[in-house]
From TrEMBL:
It is found in: Cell membrane. Pfam families: MS_channel_2nd, MS_channel_3rd. The chain crosses the membrane at residues 285-302, 323-343, 349-367, 374-398, 404-422, 434-455, 467-495, 516-541, 561-585, 606-628, 634-656. Keywords: Cell membrane, Membrane, Transmembrane, Transmembrane helix. It comes from Pedobacter westerhofensis. One of its GO terms (molecular function) is mechanosensitive monoatomic ion channel activity. This is Mechanosensitive ion channel. Belongs to the MscS (TC 1.A.23) family. InterPro entries: LSM_dom_sf, MS_channel_C, MscS-like_channel, MscS_beta-dom_sf, MscS_channel_2nd, MscS_channel_C_sf, MscS_channel_TM-2. GO terms for cellular component: plasma membrane. It is a multi-pass membrane protein. Residues 650-716 form the Mechanosensitive ion channel MscS domain.
Amino acid sequence: MAIKLLFIVSIFTGILLFRCQELCAQGKVDSVHVRNSADSSSAFVKKMNAFAQRMKDESAGDFESDRTEMAQDRALDIIRKSLQKATLYLKGGIDTLGFAQQLTDLEKDFGVASDGVLTQKGTAQTNRNLFATANIINELLNKTLAIRNNLAIHHETLSAFRFQLDSLSNNPVLFKFPKDSANTVKYLQHLVVMAYQVSPIDSSIKIAAANVRTLLNRTDMIALKLQTGLEEVHLYQRKMAIGVFNREFGNIWDPAGYARPFSEILTQAKAKGELNLMFFAGNNSGKLIAVLLLIITSYIYLRSLKTIYIEKGLLNVNFDGQLVLRYPQLSAMIIVINIFQFIFISPPFILSLLFWTVAAFSLSVIFRNYINRYWYRVWMIMFVLFLICACDNLILQASRTERWLMFFISLSGFLVGVTVLLKGRRSTLREKWMIYTIGLMTLIECGAVWANVFGRYNLAKTLMVTGYLNVVIAILFLWTVRLINEGLYLAFNVYTRQEKKLFYLNFERVGNRAPTFFYVALVIGWFILFGRNFAGFSYIAGPLQDFFTREHSIGDYTFTINKLLLFLVIIAIAVMVSRVVSFFASDGHIATDKNNVNSKRGVGSWLLLIRISILGIGSFLAIAAAGIPMDRLTIILGALGVGIGFGLQTLVNNLVSGLIIAFEKPVNVGDIVEIGGQGGTMKSIGFRSSVISTWDGADLIMPNGDLLSSHLTNWTLGGSHKRLSILISVAYDSDLNKVRKVLAGILDKEERIHQHPAPVVQYEQFSNSSIDVRIYFWARQMKEAGDTRSDLIIAIQTAFAAQGINIPIPQQDVYVHGPKDEI
C-alpha cells in the first residue's frame, strides 16, 4: 500500500511541474488567457482529487481484502487443528464397547447379589445374606459411579469438540468472498475441501456423543437400581437389628413354607462369596501384600533365632519354653495373622475364615506331641466343629436342610463342652483360661439349639458361629501372646549384641515380654470379632463411626476425628520407626570381635539423619492427611521462632550441633573417645544429647553443643590403636645387649601389638642406682591396651628372672656422723 501511495504522489508532482514550465515560457498573457488558464487549472485539480479519492478507495478495498484473507486463513487453520485433535481423541479416547461390557457385567453381578434378597426372597431374610448383599451392591454402586464419571468426562469432551467446530464453521469471516471472480472460485474450492474434511469428523463426533449419551442413560438406570436395592437391604437390616429375638420360621418340625432346592442355595452362596472376596481383595491388595511380607520377615527372625540355639546347643528336645522355634514358619503365620487381621475393615466372612483356618491349622501342627494328648483331641474336635460351622455360615439363604445341620452342629458343641467341663483334665491344661472359653461356648451353643428349634433362625446361626469362634479365637490369641513372649525371652537371652540378620534389633531395649497394651488390644479385638456376628453390631458401631467421620469446626478450621486420629497414628508410627532405627545406636551394636572392630563403623553416623528424615516425612504426611492448612502451620512456626529467640537457644544449639555431628562425623557410635581426661565408648548420638559409656560403667549424657565444642580425642578415627610405653630399670652390671635381645623377643611373641611400626627399645639414662630402659609399642586395640601392658610386665619380669638380669631396688647409703666425744 505504501508503494502505491508514493507512485500516485510522484505522478501528481510531475504533472504540476510540467504545467508550470509551460506557463513561464509564454511570457505576457492577457487577462482573458489568464482567466481561461485559471479555469483549466481548477478543472485539473478536481480531476486529480477525484483520481486520488478513487485510488484511496481502491487501496482501502485492497487492505480490507487482505485483512479478510488473513482472518480466513487463521479460522481455517484453527478448524484444521481442531479436526486433528478430534480425530486423535476418537481413535483412542473412547471405548464404548468396553464400557458397555462393564455395564453388562455390573447388571449380571447385581442379579447375583439380588438373589435371595430382592428376588426369590423366601419366607424371611437372613443376616448373613443381607450383609453379603449389601457389600456387593455397595461395591457395584461405587464402580457404576466411577464409570458414569468417566462417561460424563467423555461426553463433555465430545460436546466441546462439536461446539468448537460449530462456532468456527459459523464464523462470519468465512462468508466474505473476494471481489475478483477468479479468487472467489479458488476460495470456494478451498471451502469445499474443508467441508469434506469436517463432515465425517463431525458425523463421528455426533455418533460417539450419542453412544456415550446412551451409555450414560443406561448407567444412570443401573445406579438407580443399585441405590434402590441398597436402601431396601438397609431397611431389612434395620428391622432385623430391632427384632433380634423375633421368630422368622415355624418350629423345626413344622412343614416348610417355602422350598428352594438346596443345590441352588449352595450355588448362590458360592457366587456371592466369590464376588465378595474378589472385590475386597482387589481393594485391599496392598494390605494383603503387607501381611505376606510381615510373615516372611517374622519367619526370618525366628529361623535365625532357632539357628543360634541349635549352634549353641540350647534347643530343648521337647521345645519346652521354646515352642515358637519348633516350626518358625507356622509361628510367624500365627503371630502375624492374629495381630494384623484387624487392619482389614469389615472383611467378608470368607476372608476371615481363611485367616482363622490357616492360623488354627498352624497351631494344630505346633501342638502335636507337645500338649497333653487329651487336650490335643479336644482342640482338634473344636477345630473340626468350627470348620463345619464356618462352612455352614457361608450358606446365605435359609432352608430346612440347613436348619437340621445347624441343630446337630450346635448340639455337638454343647455336648463336647459339657463333657470337657465335667471330665476334663484341668491339671494338664497349659493355658487355664481356655476352660472359661469352653464354658462360654457351651452356654452359647445351648442357646443356639433352643433358638433353632423354635424358629429363630438368625439368632440361632449367630449364636452357633459365635460360640465356636469364641473358643478358637480365644485359644489363638492366648497362644499368640505366649509365642510372642517366648520369642522375646529367647531373643533377649541369646542376643547380647545386635546382629545384622536381625536388622540390629536391640532386645535389651525391647524387653522379654510383650507390653501390657498388647494384651488389652487383643482382648478388645476378641470382643470385636465376637460381636461382629450379631445383626445389631453395625448399628451400635454406626453412631460411633459417624462421630469419627462427621466434620467438626473450630472457627474457620474444619476437621474430623478420623483425621486427627490419623495424624496421631502417623506421628506415632514415625516415632516408633525412629526408635527402632535408634537400636543401631546402643552398646550391643559395638563389635567385640578383635579382628572386626571397624566392621560396623559408619552405620551409626547416619542414624540421626535417618531419624530426622523419618520424623520429618512422618510429620509432613500427618499434616497432609489431617488437612491442616499451611497458614495455621505458618503461625505455629512463627510462634516457635519467637520461643526460640527468647528461651530455646540452648535447645536449638544442641539440635543443630547434632546435625553437624551427623554430617561431619567427628565421632561415631561405637567410637572410643576421651573428653576432659575421661574415656569411654560412644553409646548413642541423639537429637539433643549423646551418651558416652565410661570405663567405670556409668553413662555420661553430654549435650551435643558441649560435645562439639569440647576438645575430644577420638581413638577410633586413628584405627583404635594406641602407643604405650613401659619403663624398666636394670642393674649397672647388666649386659645391655642381652637385655635388648630379651625384650625384643618378648615383644615379637606378643600378638596384641603391631609389628609395623615395630616396637622400640631405648636406653634413656643413668639413674641413681640403675640404667633406665623404655620400650615403646603400639597396641592393636585400644580396649586391650591395659591388658597388654599388664601381660608384658609379667612376661618381662619372668624373662629377666630366668636370664639372671637384675632389676635393682632403689637404695641410698646414709652415713651418720655423731659429734666427737669430748675428753
